[in-house]
Amino acid sequence: MGKRPTQEQVARLAETSTAVVSYVVNNGPRPVAENTRKRVLEAIAATGYRPNSAARTLVSGRSSVIGLVVPDLANPFLALLAQSIEHELFSRAYSMLIGDSADEQRREASVVETLLTHEISGLIWYTVAQPPPQDVLDKLTIPTVILNDIEREDLSAADEAGRVVSVLADEREAARLATEHLVDHGRQRIAHVGGPSQRLNSAARARGWLDAVAASDLRPGGQIAAPFTRQGGFESAAQLVELECDAVVAANEMQGIGLLAGLRRAGVRVPEDLGVIALNGTTAADYSLPTLTTVEMLTADLAAEIADTLDSDSQALTIVPDVRMIARESCGCANIGFGTGR
Amino acid sequence: MGKRPTQEQVARLAETSTAVVSYVVNNGPRPVAENTRKRVLEAIAATGYRPNSAARTLVSGRSSVIGLVVPDLANPFLALLAQSIEHELFSRAYSMLIGDSADEQRREASVVETLLTHEISGLIWYTVAQPPPQDVLDKLTIPTVILNDIEREDLSAADEAGRVVSVLADEREAARLATEHLVDHGRQRIAHVGGPSQRLNSAARARGWLDAVAASDLRPGGQIAAPFTRQGGFESAAQLVELECDAVVAANEMQGIGLLAGLRRAGVRVPEDLGVIALNGTTAADYSLPTLTTVEMLTADLAAEIADTLDSDSQALTIVPDVRMIARESCGCANIGFGTGR
DNA sequence: ATGAAAGCGCTAACAT
DNA sequence: ATGTTAGCGCTTTCAT
Question: According to the UniProt entry, where is the signal peptide (chains A, B) (predicted)?
Fold first, then answer.
């Protein structure tokens, strides 16, 4: 485990000072003569020097590392989101520390605090609960993007402390879109499979669903609380049958996929007997049977907006990512996009 | 953005020195009187002090951060692996920096170098190619686990430099298991859908497949090169039909899922006409139609072994993770595990 | 344009 | 048991 070369060794080899090496490496803040710069670059190449980011962070107080906290990295949508964010951050010369809260609030608090320990210069936090724990929020002194539909007042303390805390508020619109589409298909009783009832997490989705139902003078088809898993969706199928609905909006794609399997087993035909749309879809929806109509978030765009917010200290209080519906078979839009992988 | 409290402030409040605060925080290396310890802990609570990890890293040379590089975080298997590793590392008080190489060697090199910049104390690298680029290997001065079936000689340079470089070598066995199972089902012509042909990446899987085919005096049913995506699997279906096989081993679950959709479309019945098994499966395989028989890696165990290797400087040269076959419908083992979510 | 030097917050060797 | 202090590698102010 040989020690890595330091700035000092580079300076010695280039016959100059560490200050100048620093100027060259960082392209400033002071000018360097072309000649000297060249010697320094050669010395860097010769020694294999790479700046030590711990030292850099210590002196500058900024780390070029962003933290991301998600409740379940094995959820394909969250994995996709994480990937999009990683790509965006990488292109801006940031690295990404990732924490998985396992959908548990206790663990989440601990994960966030650990990340803060690393002097991250920004935090992207897909919270488990809504609102997020106040005591953790109070510890945030860095630009933070909360990925959940938060009431502004929950953040007042954070705002006052001068932190940039932004918020994603789209799930409501996504749910509204999905429900509306089912209405357009002529569905009469539209149910909603949401998250576990003890969690407020999915309140926004439920609201969007109710918005659309109300707007079309229908009665809500009933709401089912289920874990955000394929198994959760699978098990909801039976309840759904009892509710005698003809359509359902699932809170996420995993539930949607589970639902399809459960309905198949229950002998319910999709989309003939029951239309299904899931939120937060990925390309995996192209390969189920039937293919699953979803509402997708444009994660690449969202990632870019998040990054903008974090490194420009933008004053945006809310980010509203674009959302679009991908009509496939499960809602009744037959023969669209089947297995094409888009 | 108020400055965070430092050790010095804690010391002042507790009326002691920074050294003692350090001893308390790190539980050593020197003893502290019970009384003093209590005052320090109170001061920490009062100030909200959290150690600055940049300073810690700088002085100690170790960072409590491990780097993970994967080719595609949106691949459910890799997402699961990343999650398992994150959980294991978290339980050992490590944090995880993650880089997505996007399955491109150029990007991969850059991602690895960026991680090295952060003084990570270990690297877990699911390489794009086999063997991994030598120039990058040569830069590794930290314990590293390469997740790919590497020839020992490719690492000789790394070993000589005293680095702990360990290797995962299981894919061959996984492929052998899968193929053998298809043989047991009486399949005669067993094909293999591997990775893109210009990549050696999947050589181990191909070897395991050939091992099993040879052991049963069958002729190989043909090999198809396809991207490691659902779309790749989907498009292989047509070629598979031409090969007139009665079984196939797909290199990963995404290909397997795509294959099922493609075969369905081509009017091929699974498992009646064609048996399908995919490697590196996840629980998602429980919800396809038919449910997809897979060989799974026990990612939790693997993660634990990896972590052991990284923080104990273990001398193990190879990690052989446990692998097990989950028989579902697609191979011909009907009515097993259908939608049960296990 | 270049260099000397003062820290950034922390750990641990070395006093006491 | 506790305190003092010398760096860890880097950035940047302040000379020159």
Answer: none
